[in-house]
Amino acid sequence: MRLATVNIDGLPHAVVETSRGFVDLPFSSVRDLLEAPSWRTIVERHLLDDVLVPVDSATYLPVVLAPHKVICCGHNYRDHIIEMGRELPSFPTLFTKYADSLAGPYAELSFNSESKEIDWEAELAVIVGAEVKNCTPEQALSAIAGYTISNDISMRDWQRRTLQWFQGKAFDASTPLGPVLVTPDECDPKAGLAISCQVNGETVQSGNTSTLVFDAAALISYISRFTVLRPGDVILTGTPGGVGMARTPPRFLADGDVLVTTIGGIGELRNHISIPN
Amino acid sequence: MRLATVNIDGLPHAVVETSRGFVDLPFSSVRDLLEAPSWRTIVERHLLDDVLVPVDSATYLPVVLAPHKVICCGHNYRDHIIEMGRELPSFPTLFTKYADSLAGPYAELSFNSESKEIDWEAELAVIVGAEVKNCTPEQALSAIAGYTISNDISMRDWQRRTLQWFQGKAFDASTPLGPVLVTPDECDPKAGLAISCQVNGETVQSGNTSTLVFDAAALISYISRFTVLRPGDVILTGTPGGVGMARTPPRFLADGDVLVTTIGGIGELRNHISIPN
Fold first, then answer.
1. Count of CB atoms within 10 A of residue A1's CB?
2. Per-residue confidence of chain B (277 residues) as pLDDT tens digits?
3. Which residues of A are less than 8 Å from B131 in CB distance?
4. CATH at A268
5. Domain range enclosing B185
6. Residue A89 lies in a domain
7. Which of A69, A171, A226 is facing B226, going by the closest CB pair?
């Protein structure tokens, strides 16, 4: 199944996609839905209904609203690590964003003038569907609600001001997430999903989720050894090669750019970039 | 005024300390109280009441429950930076914890066997009292609800597994916070508050908040340039010299240790350490 959080008449709603359109669910966001232990059954029951809601791109919100935790992994695409001449890591490199960092999948991303080096990072995002603490990778796998797309937009100048990346990663409304959560029965990143990023139609990143060093279940299991994860929490799994900072010369997002982030089987994010002069 | 969050008959309550004892407030935690724009007036009105509630050390909860953001600053005590031969930083080094990371001021801190290098970091904590975004240091100063004590307990082995410290800083229930929030009219860290940490009665850290490179207002102003801060959010301001990792040989917390963290004019945290063999 494919779930989304959309704005209907000014209020957020969880919806499920069908071949006929979107069916409304009695929850104000996908996170609220996932907090119901029997959420799969609830969605299946509503799929029998015929109450369709109109959904256009302007109505999409971040697929999860107000997650408690948004945890990101860096250095996680095997082919990119090897091409950079680095060793494969023994442990995942983890940092954080906030619910405030998130933006809609088709939102205009409007930045203030604080950063001069706004960069892209196409990423597979995993949405947690059950509470887990100290879980094995097998338990983690069954706690995954589904997968979606994100772009871990990074302010490189802020990210490199100190040793800790957080301040360059947590700008408000910088990180599009969506458009839909696709459940694991319809989507298997381990088997391989093409992931790419385009700026103004030019492909700048291209990779495959089968080359993740730490897959979704491994990341959730590892994180759960130090902190609890709950329904709606978001894990960003890292980005393949091709970020703007690593180009010669470096290239960053500019006012008016159109950023498209695509993962096969899930869909795409499409975000216009607005940066004041 | 001095505010606390305590457990009364199994439910959390915000209370205010008076010379006669603690007066109950109609909020379930200091964060809920701070979300009321007129919180100072509300507390003053209740101070006229004579309804005292019994408070002993077992009833203290983290002074703020469920903050949206817990942001920490590293490398921030001038004397310690200079004694280590480092340059004073141009920007604050920031990383994060979670509401789940917090523990009561007198709680037993029970760790699992994941870390073998559990270290102390006595810190002044600042509690935000109003929503701020892109604020000046002057605006930040008037948005401070007050000050309290924390110990940024750090799992050094996890902290150093990768370049990003987060995974060694965000173990659940690792970070005592409290016992009271003291409002700025009664507490001025810039003028200088003695801060110290004792393990089993031995003083291992001793510093003064007047030597902070980035003071509370500077940190809030800086953070607000990339993300909004709200009432109840917590900023940990860094630790003076004397952490266990920097000793020769290194020293870490052991099962049965008693950790006391003291800031003049606020009070002390007293935490028994429990670590399985």
1. 16
2. 999 999 998 999 999 999 888 999 999 999 999 999 999 999 999 998 777 888 888 899 999 999 999 999 999 999 888 877 889 999 999 999 999 999 999 999 999 889 999 999 999 999 999 999 999 999 999 999 999 999 999 999 999 999 999 999 999 999 999 999 999 999 999 999 999 999 999 999 999 999 999 999 999 999 999 999 999 999 999 999 999 999 999 999 999 999 999 999 999 999 999 998 7
3. none
4. 3.90.850.10
5. 60-274
6. yes
7. A171
Amino acid identity of A51?
V
Taking CB atoms and an 8 Å cutoff, what residues of chain B touch A164? 74, 93-95, 164-165
Query: What is the total count of domains within chain B?
Result: 1
Mutate to test the interface with A, among B73, B91, B93, B96 (most CBs of A within 10 A): B96
In a domain, A46, yes or no: no
Domain contains B5: no
Interface of B with A (CB under 8 A): 68-69, 74, 89-96, 98-101, 112, 114, 133-134, 155, 158, 161-167, 170-172, 223, 225-228
CB neighbour class for A80 (10 Å; exposed up to 12, middle 13-18, buried from 19):
buried
Report CA Rg, chain A: 18
* Token pair in block for residue B132: 């701020």
B167/A68 CB distance under 8 A: no
A248 burial via Cβ count (<10 Å: 0-12, 13-18, 19+): exposed
Helices marked H in B76-166 — which ranges?
78-83, 137-142, 156-159
For residue A197, is it within any domain? yes
Q: Is the ipTM of this complex over 0.85?
A: yes
